[in-house]
């Protein structure tokens, strides 16, 4: 559709709106207002000075029909205002029930009337007129909109009555808010569905997520495909008040649909879906790791990772971020998870971790000579041969996760080792960094400076000072 066509349609639409506004003029439900901008501004300032709201004083409402028409035909600028009644009639909202509006006139020694503008000086309609006329012409039966429009609804109901039309059912829903109670907006983050589609969220998950916002779902499960939503949704179940949007629910729904599609009995559909997941991950890898070897972005390698930790797949970008240790040459030992792990470590834990890594590396190097396969059973054998205590084995596996994945979550340690491969596992076990960005460990495995510095160590920046500190610690132990 070209711009010329768009402008023509908008012009025709504006003409229709103005025709309907003139119908209200003819029936006395509206009047032309010729007040200048300066007069209206002065009126508003005077009322504000008195501590009053800035309603209109109906100066032009007393102008005769003949004079009003003559002045408009003479080219004088004007707007068309709705002449509101002293009290609006009650109406029913589908959620909030019977609404009985208050008086529309406010007098504190100054005449004041709501009388909203319907047609502006440029001939274009305001929302108050356009929404009523458009909805009627489109045979709209239900108007569902935000709660902020509830105070304006009495005006709209009154206009329906003035036109002699049957009003639709009005349903005012709460606002969507973030965790701080602020209305969702572009300023506070993504608000458009299209943005989440671009990130890789499934349309089914998004539809399910949006449908649950402000709806009192009484079913046992929140995972509701379109058919289930259509069958169970009811306006009567919409909740009063605003709704805080929990995007964690979106991730939960996404995982549920991913699980359903990747385990579908329809093999062709399942393979097609998994293929789309792999392609999305490859695109995310190309963005985050443009220089990694081809084998680490191959379909076979990605499918191994997906198969090992499909339950944690949300979107391609998130999956790559959470499993970046499969694509880095070494784990990110400065990531949040690594820092949290080290924060809980004592010097003794460091020594045990280093011993466990060395034991595993040595055992892996001897695997072939022992005639053993590189598989899960071999990993279990190393654990059983060196740590009989199950709690000790769990500690070792935590150390291995730190050494191989920087402490990040994901597949079990057996799966991680099988995916990385024997050679890469040995390399990482021998090169693991047991301290943080600002940490060093002395020759006895004690953390001299951790990633989370003690207050008294905060000023130590020079490497020579750190070396001196290590020497002092060693002398104290002699």
UniProtKB/TrEMBL annotation:
<protein>
    <submittedName>
        <fullName>Uncharacterized protein</fullName>
    </submittedName>
</protein>
<dbReference type="InterPro" id="IPR020751">
    <property type="entry name" value="aa-tRNA-synth_I_codon-bd_sub2"/>
</dbReference>
<dbReference type="InterPro" id="IPR049940">
    <property type="entry name" value="GluQ/Sye"/>
</dbReference>
<dbReference type="InterPro" id="IPR020058">
    <property type="entry name" value="Glu/Gln-tRNA-synth_Ib_cat-dom"/>
</dbReference>
<dbReference type="GO" id="GO:0032543">
    <property type="term" value="P:mitochondrial translation"/>
</dbReference>
<keyword id="KW-0030">Aminoacyl-tRNA synthetase</keyword>
<dbReference type="GO" id="GO:0005739">
    <property type="term" value="C:mitochondrion"/>
</dbReference>
<feature type="domain" description="Glutamyl/glutaminyl-tRNA synthetase class Ib catalytic">
    <location>
        <begin position="10"/>
        <end position="251"/>
    </location>
</feature>
<dbReference type="GO" id="GO:0004818">
    <property type="term" value="F:glutamate-tRNA ligase activity"/>
</dbReference>
<dbReference type="InterPro" id="IPR045462">
    <property type="entry name" value="aa-tRNA-synth_I_cd-bd"/>
</dbReference>
<dbReference type="Pfam" id="PF19269">
    <property type="entry name" value="Anticodon_2"/>
</dbReference>
<dbReference type="Pfam" id="PF00749">
    <property type="entry name" value="tRNA-synt_1c"/>
</dbReference>
<keyword id="KW-0547">Nucleotide-binding</keyword>
<dbReference type="InterPro" id="IPR008925">
    <property type="entry name" value="aa_tRNA-synth_I_cd-bd_sf"/>
</dbReference>
<comment type="similarity">
    <text>Belongs to the class-I aminoacyl-tRNA synthetase family. Glutamate--tRNA ligase type 1 subfamily.</text>
</comment>
<keyword id="KW-0648">Protein biosynthesis</keyword>
<dbReference type="GO" id="GO:0006424">
    <property type="term" value="P:glutamyl-tRNA aminoacylation"/>
</dbReference>
<keyword id="KW-0436">Ligase</keyword>
<dbReference type="InterPro" id="IPR014729">
    <property type="entry name" value="Rossmann-like_a/b/a_fold"/>
</dbReference>
<dbReference type="GO" id="GO:0005524">
    <property type="term" value="F:ATP binding"/>
</dbReference>
<dbReference type="GO" id="GO:0000049">
    <property type="term" value="F:tRNA binding"/>
</dbReference>
<feature type="domain" description="Aminoacyl-tRNA synthetase class I anticodon-binding">
    <location>
        <begin position="299"/>
        <end position="432"/>
    </location>
</feature>
<keyword id="KW-0067">ATP-binding</keyword>
């Amino acid at each position: 559709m070209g711009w010329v066509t768009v402008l023509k349609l908008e012009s025709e639409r504006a003409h229709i709106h103005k025709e309907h506004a003139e119908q209200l003029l003819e029936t006395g439900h509206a009047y032309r207002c010729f007040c200048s901008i300066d007069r209206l501004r002065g009126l508003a300032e005077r009322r504000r000075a008195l501590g009053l709201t800035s309603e209109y004083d109906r100066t032009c409402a007393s102008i005769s029909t003949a004079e009003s028409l003559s002045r408009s035909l003479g080219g004088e600028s004007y707007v068309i205002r709705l002449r509101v009644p002293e009290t609006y009639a009650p109406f029913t909202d589908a959620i909030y029930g019977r609404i009985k509006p208050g008086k529309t006139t406010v007098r504190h020694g100054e005449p004041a009337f709501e009388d909203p503008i319907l047609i502006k000086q440029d001939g274009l309609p305001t929302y108050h007129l356009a929404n009523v006329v458009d909805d009627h012409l489109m045979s709209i039966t239900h108007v569902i909109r935000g709660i902020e429009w509830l105070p304006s609804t009495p005006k709209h109901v009154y206009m329906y009555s003035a036109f002699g039309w049957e009003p639709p059912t009005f349903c005012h829903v709460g606002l969507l808010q973030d965790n701080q109670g602020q209305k969702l907006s572009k300023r506070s983050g993504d608000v458009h569905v299209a943005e989440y589609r671009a990130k890789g969220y499934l349309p089914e998950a998004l539809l399910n997520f949006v449908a649950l916002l402000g709806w009192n779902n009484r079913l046992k499960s929140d995972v509701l495909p379109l058919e289930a939503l259509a069958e169970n949704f009811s306006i009567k179940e919409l909740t009063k008040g605003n709704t805080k949007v929990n995007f964690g629910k979106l991730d939960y729904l996404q995982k549920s649909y991913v699980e359903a599609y990747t385990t579908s009995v329809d093999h062709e559909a399942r393979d097609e879906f998994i293929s789309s997941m792999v392609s999305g991950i490859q695109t995310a890898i190309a963005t985050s790791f443009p220089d990694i070897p081809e084998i680490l972005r191959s379909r076979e390698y990605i499918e191994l990772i997906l198969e090992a930790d499909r339950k944690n797949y949300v979107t391609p970008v998130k999956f790559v971020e959470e499993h970046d240790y499969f694509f880095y040459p070494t784990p990110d030992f400065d990531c949040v998870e690594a820092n949290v792990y080290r924060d809980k470590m004592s010097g003794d834990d460091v020594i045990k971790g280093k011993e466990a890594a060395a034991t595993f590396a040595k055992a892996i190097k001897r695997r072939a000579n022992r005639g053993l396969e590189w598989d899960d059973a071999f990993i279990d054998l190393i654990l059983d041969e060196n740590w009989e205590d199950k709690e000790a084995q769990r500690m070792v596996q935590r150390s291995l996760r730190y050494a191989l994945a920087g402490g990040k979550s994901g597949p079990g340690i057996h799966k991680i080792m099988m995916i990385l491969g024997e050679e890469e596992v040995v390399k990482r076990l021998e090169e693991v960094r047991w301290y943080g960005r600002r940490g060093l460990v002395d020759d006895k495995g004690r953390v001299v400076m951790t990633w989370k510095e003690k207050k008294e160590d905060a000023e130590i920046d020079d490497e020579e000072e750190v070396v001196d500190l290590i020497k002092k610690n060693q002398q104290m132990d002699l």
